[in-house]
């Protein structure tokens, strides 16, 4: 009885360990609807404000930046409703500017409006959903992998972006560490006309499965590098983002693929079976 009990415990341990390994290598995908998020108390309705919302136990905070005439400065982010999404009013635009300049845009082109997203837990973005668009709807997506300075997320975001231009966010200084994920154009391959219709535009943005806590979504600008799209002006509002159903293992830990895990489990079961036959012979 004791031997059989020990064998059952061993078998149970094999299956339990296999399940733990599978669950540790994956996590349910989440979607953050950015329209309807909570605006922070700091600089509410002014330049340097922020929004935050949660999904799947992971909170995302959004910070906006735009041109001050020569480089990036904190901008005002405005929620234009569930059918539109978040827009950006830069210092150049001014507070309360009319459409389409209160969208996230690349006019002026030197420092295109952008939104920085900070997640409490690192994610692999899957897609970006745009709400209202005008003229064109090209965007740039980057992830941050460098060192951070600042006592709060808002301060860190400011240190990462403030005083930079599109061309030096990825080339050194305090902005070093922004890695280009890709540029994403609209559905018009010719570039002769933009995506002039309002609505929702879903862009799948992370084919290489980059994982980070800090993401940058910007109206497209060739100064970021990573390719050239058309020269049309892009006006977009950010409606939501979603993550993929993957999470990397801890540093230095290699999680087995499902097939390898299955083979390992079968090998362990074979070992237990052989041990059981040996115990029977000894009985």
Q: What is this entry, summarized?
A:
It comes from Roseateles paludis. By secondary structure, the chain is of the alpha+beta class.
Oligomeric composition of the shown chains: single chain
Count of runs of 4 or more consecutive helical residues: 3
Tell me the count of domains.
2
- What is the total tally of β strands? 15
Q: Ranges with pLDDT <50 over ≥5 residues? A: 1-26, 187-197, 252-266
Helix/sheet category: alpha+beta
Give a short account of the largest sheet: 8 strands, antiparallel
Strand content: 25-35%
Spatial extent as radius of gyration: 24 Å
Can you give the helix content as a percent range? 10-25%
Shape: globular
- Write the H/E string, N to C: HEEEEEEEEEEEHEEEEH
Distance between the termini: 11 Å
Mean pLDDT metric: 78
